[in-house]
Design goal:
The complex is a heterodimer of chains A (234) and B (334).
Chain A: E1 2-13, E2 16-27, E3 31-36, H1 42-49, E4 54-62, E5 65-66, H2 72-77, E6 80-83, H3 95-102, H4 111-120, H5 122-125, H6 137-149, E7 155-159, H7 167-182, E8 186-190, H8 194-200, E9 203-208, E10 211-217, H9 218-223, H10 225-231
Parallel strand pairs in A: 3-8, 3-9, 6-7, 7-8
Antiparallel strand pairs in A: 1-2, 1-4, 4-5, 9-10
Helix pairs in contact in A: 3-6
Chain B: H1 2-36, H2 43-60, H3 64-68, H4 72-75, H5 77-101, H6 106-128, E1 143-147, E2 156-160, H7 161-183, H8 185-195, H9 197-202, H10 207-232, H11 239-254, H12 259-277, H13 281-284, H14 311-323
Helix pairs in contact in B: 1-7, 1-8, 1-10, 1-11, 1-12, 2-5, 2-6, 2-10, 2-11, 5-6, 5-10, 7-8, 7-10, 8-10, 11-12, 11-14
Classes of the chains: A alpha/beta (234), B mainly alpha (334).
């Protein structure tokens, strides 16, 4: 059974349609990567899956249940977490408090999870009592991902996790994404850095004009000369 | 020495009293803005309403205070706070929430809150009339006169029981608010929602509960401020009209959205008021004999005549908005 399966998604903001029939499917524990030109509907697809956008047509099934247009707070309780590209931390809260807010829906003791996050991102451990807004861009991204992971999601949606980061942090974030995925978390991410992202992807989706242009395994897409020519910069 | 005691009575004590009142009002204004992103102009009316709730309770149970040995108005305060908090939530549900759900612009919310102001003021006029009321009709207001152990000090420091209770109350309130915001799950969620409402939603924070908590804190502090102010002087039905400007000035001086800023701002505005109406001629009087004849010492030497006191927060507000619109703590710009 697919972890998440979206078929024929249509939707947008107001009257303007951005998605014109997007299909997306990943299995449990897989990494799916969405690439495409600017304005192709990559981020919009993630938002549609997470209930942040009105889906006018199509269906989304998450862990066997239809979740089309379900509100984000309900999806969080079902094990889906989302890291927006921007404004993805609480800047005046400390790192530790950011993680606690990620676990808001949990009623159990989650201290072991906080420790686990500091294990994933040792940079953060020393800054736990510092306001998250004072951290560097890469560290903020780590806070944002840790916050989302606090619900122990089965699917993590990442919107351009490496945007604006230095190559050093970019590699570190990619390493962490692989590590998080190895622990059993399914990941669906939008990424500008298409080559590197497809390199770690089980499934790749190339979008153009709000619909799937190519859908295949990450490796096949990387080796497809047409994809390489039009989307990966030769 | 007597001049110094006069200064303590007129500036230090009066400034702390009015500063505490402004601070409690400004905390409410700033929290509502932080969570709901609009300037709640009906906040002064929550104060009047809370004071009237206390007053009604005092009229119904005038003996309640004598059992504990505190003013009845103060003993009734928790009930009045709870009632005002409920009113605040009901106002939100019936007027502000429907607008919020339609994603109206903040200015529409502000206009709605002005409508609520007019409504509450009208209701109070209808039921209570325009006259002032005294909480101490059945009991005596205790006044403490503290003598200083100096030979030259013949005057005494004067502080009333309601004033002392106010100082105790605001200290407890500020400490509890601090602990709530930094230690409790809900308090942290309030700060989170103030930081980033969208991310709060995608984190699964119960935003309805946060909104309710905000109104409970704002409403109950407003009731406390209104009651404690009325205990200090008298309960005037136009209380909200006179207090709205200073509490907004306090919230903006402190930095809108910052509860600690609101506290600081409240005291800044309170002390600015008492310092500017203080008669500084008092300090010059002891030197009257040694001054040359051609200097005619005026009887009254204050920055602002007492009856124009209300202009002080207005001037502070204008100055802050021009030179530092984010306030002391770098808050939002209204």
């Amino acid at each position: 059974m697919a972890l998440i399966k979206a078929t024929g998604l249509h939707g947008g903001y107001g009257a303007m349609n951005i998605l014109n029939g997007v299909d997306m499917e990943i299995e449990e524990g897989e990494i799916g990567v969405i690439v495409g030109a600017n304005g192709a509907g990559k981020s919009t697809t993630l938002k549609a899956l997470f209930g942040l956008l009105n889906v006018t047509e199509g269906e989304i099934i998450f862990k066997g249940e239809t979740i089309t247009n379900m509100q984000p707070d309900k999806l969080v309780r079902r094990g889906m977490a989302f890291v927006p590209q921007e404004y993805n931390i609480f800047p005046s809260l400390t790192v530790q408090e950011n993680l606690e807010m990620g676990a808001f829906v949990r009623k159990d003791d989650f201290t072991h999870l906080i420790d686990q996050m500091y294990g994933y991102f040792p940079d953060l451990a020393g800054k736990r009592d510092q306001p998250a807004g004072e951290l560097s861009g890469g560290q903020r991204q780590m806070v944002a991902m840790s916050r989302a992971l606090m619900i122990e999601p089965s699917l993590l949606l990442l919107d351009e996790p490496t945007a604006g980061l230095s190559p050093l942090y970019m590699n570190e974030i990619f390493d962490r994404i692989i590590a998080i995925n190895k622990s059993g978390v399914g990941i669906l991410m939008v990424e500008q850095n298409a080559k590197q992202a497809l390199g770690i992807a089980h499934k790749g989706f190339v979008l153009a004009n709000g619909t799937n242009r190519f859908t295949d395994t990450g490796t096949n897409l990387l080796n497809d000369p047409e994809v390489a020519k039009s989307f990966l910069g030769g | 020495m007597n001049e110094f005691i006069f200064f303590i009575n007129k500036v230090v004590i009066s400034g702390s009293v009015i500063g505490s009142i402004y601070a409690m009002g400004a905390i409410g204004v700033t929290l509502v803005f932080a969570i709901l992103r609009f300037a709640h102009f009906a906040h002064g009316d929550l104060m009047t309403l809370g004071a009237f709730f206390s007053y009604i309770l005092v009229v119904l149970f005038p003996e309640a205070g004598s059992f504990i040995g505190l003013p009845t108005g103060f003993v009734m305060l928790p009930i009045a706070m709870a009632l005002t908090a409920i009113v605040a939530i009901l106002l939100d549900r019936s007027f502000y929430r429907p607008l919020r759900q339609n994603n109206v612009k903040p200015v529409v919310m502000v206009m709605a809150s002005i409508g609520v102001t007019l409504m509450i003021q009208g209701l109070i006029r209808v039921f209570a009339g325009p006259s002032s009321r005294n909480f101490f009709f059945a009991e005596r207001k205790d006044i403490f006169r503290i003598e200083l152990p100096f030979e030259l000090a013949s005057r005494k420091i004067v502080v009333t029981e309601p004033q002392l209770l106010l100082f105790v109350f605001i200290t407890v309130a500020v400490i509890s608010l601090h602990l709530f915001l930094t230690r409790s799950r809900l308090g942290k969620a309030m700060r989170a929602m103030s930081d980033n409402p969208d991310l709060s939603r995608v984190s699964g924070i119960n935003t309805t509960m946060v909104v309710w908590t905000t109104w409970i804190i704002a409403g109950s502090l407003a009731a406390a401020a209104g009651t404690l102010l009325s205990l200090d002087v008298t309960l005037k039905p136009d209380l909200s009209f006179n207090i709205l400007l200073p509490i907004f000035a306090a919230a903006i001086v402190g930095g809108v959205g910052h509860p600690y800023g609101a506290i600081a701002g409240g005291f800044v505005v309170g002390f600015a008021e008492t310092l500017s109406v203080f008669n500084w001629a008092i300090f010059l009087r002891p030197f009257r004999d040694s001054l040359p004849d051609w200097i005619d010492l005026p009887n009254k030497l204050a920055f602002v005549p007492t009856e124009y006191k209300i202009t002080v927060p207005f001037v502070i507000l204008v100055v802050i908005l021009i030179w530092r619109p984010t306030g002391i703590f770098k808050g939002q710009v209204l």
